[in-house]
Amino acid sequence: MFVTGRKEEIKLINSNVEHPHGQSGMSVRADNARQRELTGHLNSYYDEVISSLRNAEAILIMGPGEAKGELKKRIERNNLNGRIVDVETVDKMTDPQIVAKAREHSLKQSSVAGLR
Q1: 8 A C-beta contact, residue 60 and residue 88
Q2: pLDDT (tens digit, 9 = 90+) per residue, 73-94?
Q3: CA distances from 63 to 2, 24, 83, 87, 111 (A)
Q4: Residues 6 or more apart from 9 whose CB is under 8 A from it?
Q5: CB 11 within 8 Å of CB 1
Q6: What angle do CA 17, 80, 18 make, to 5 degrees?
Q7: Which stretches within 1-116 are classed as H helix?
Q8: Which of 71, 82, 97, 106 could form a disulfide bond with 93, CB atoms 3.0-4.6 angstroms apart?
């Protein structure tokens, strides 16, 4: 989700990955064809997510699982890490809840920037 001023834009990027029960699928050793396929799908997914973030001034990473940590690592490897404002564990959220959380962080960033 991209929030600019009073405007929000939702961009859905589907990973097309079904995770095996009880496994996050974020760090999978490629020791068989299914795991290699899963790793390939995840790599493509993260590449697309990071590509969509290239013009973002600030990045807030939120989610209930471990994927946010993997995304953070990949963002750092792509030299966008200076834009990460926070990584927060949250339960599943509705779009309005995500917008509210992003705006809350945006206000915090504005007030912090004003104090410098």
Answers
A1: yes
A2: 999 999 887 888 889 999 988 9
A3: 16, 13, 18, 9, 25
A4: 1, 2
A5: yes
A6: 5
A7: 33-53, 67-77, 95-115
A8: 97
Identify residue 44 by its one-letter amino acid code.
S
Q: Residue 15: what pLDDT?
A: 82
Q: Are 17 and 24 in contact (CB under 8 A)?
A: no
Q: What domains, with CATH codes, occur in the chain?
A: 2-14+23-115 (3.30.420)
Nearest by Cα to 107 from 99, 8, 97: 99
Q: Compute the distance between CA of residue 10 and CA of residue 85 in angstroms, rounded to an integer.
A: 19
HSE-up of residue 103 (Cα within 13 Å, Cβ side):
11
- Token representation of residue 109: 């960033």
Convert the pLDDT of each residue in 32-72 to its tens digit: 888 888 888 889 999 999 999 888 888 999 988 888 999 99
* SS3 assignment for 9-28: ECCCCCCCCCCCCCCCCCCC
Among residues 29, 25, 5, 3, which one has the least CA distance to residue 15?
25
Task: Give the pLDDT score at 22.
Answer: 44
